[in-house]
Mechanosensitive ion channel
Amino acid sequence: MLADGYTKITTWIDQYPWLDMLSSLLMLLSIAFVLYFITKKFVVVGLRRLISKLPFVNQDIFANHSVIRRIANIVPALFIINTINTVPHLSEKFIQLVQMLAQAWIFLTIALSIAEMLNIFNLMYQRNPKSQNKPIKGYLQLVKLIIFIVCGLMILGTFLKKDVFTLLAGFGAMAAVLMLVFQNTILSLVASVQISSYDMIRVGDWIEMPSLGADGSVIDMSLHTVTVQNFDKTYTTIPTNRLVTDTFKNWRGMADANCRRIKRSIFIDQSSIHFLNDQEFEKLRKFLVLQQYLETKNVELKAWNETVNDLMNQRRLTNLGTFRAYVKYYLSQHAGIAQHESLLVRQLQPTTEGLPLEIYAFTQTTAWGEYEDIQSDIFDHLLAIIGEFGLKTYQAPSGADVSGLISKHISEND
């Protein structure tokens, strides 16, 4: 009875070959899905637990990447490659197409897994303090590019039924075209090697490149680009090779020295510069910081003047020279100024805006806010006290000045 029933079912199915093919395909896909589920839930989980016990593996980084999970994608593809030919009523061309697609899927999965492993390696390397000096992200990106090129050739060879070496031999004739296509990659690779070899920039460096509008900190260095976060919180992406061919300023030396330069001038009205009279001399002697300077200078000038008979050639103290001595002493006692670095108070070439008295010094800190506070405090004090020396700062006349002069002139005429 059972044999007769089986024979009838078989006979009925033989009348509908598409049904036999469809049922076999569904069974094949179901088994492939079960294998995928088992691999993902048991094999992958087991491998993760095994790898997590290794001392050099960082759990936070490893948990966010799917290297092992991709293994679950390979198992069903291997199963389909080896069992698709058992499905009845399938054409030979269709079986070959499915096998080639499954094989291409395996190649792509392996390439993605290797790329993911390189990402993990880069993240682990970046946690090493030495990675700031020698970033490897650009080199890893080059390795990824080679891997994906090889993967693409293997997939292409699978569909063309040719091995990779044959394809490479064919591409050899297209070397000029390939060099043109990968021109930027080659230039970026050479630039990355030069930047790394000469230690030109590091992640965290403050660089300034006006030609590309970059003025901020380097936050990422890759094969093709270097990303700079500007101080206005915008981002500038610089082609890697431009850092070798163009000029840029790196402020790392300032950070390493832990001091920052002040180079700023006070423009003095030249008409206010004069010799000190006795009243002004006695007034300035009340400044404790100037007592020693004035006494020493007075003795020096008297000794000089005794050797000069001509009154016109005798030397005398000036209010500008005394103010310059005051500024230098003031800076030498300032807690925010680095005393081990250069400290100058000098006159520059006179201009139509006045006589520049330049302060050249270095602060004890490189922090932007603290630096600006120190610089502002110094110039606040100097601008406020300059009048005690009988000096005036230059300021171009404004509309209010002109209006005041006109009003004064009218009132005097009335």
The longest helix spans residues 17-52. The domain at 260-274+318-399 is CATH 3.30.70.100 (Alpha-Beta Plaits).
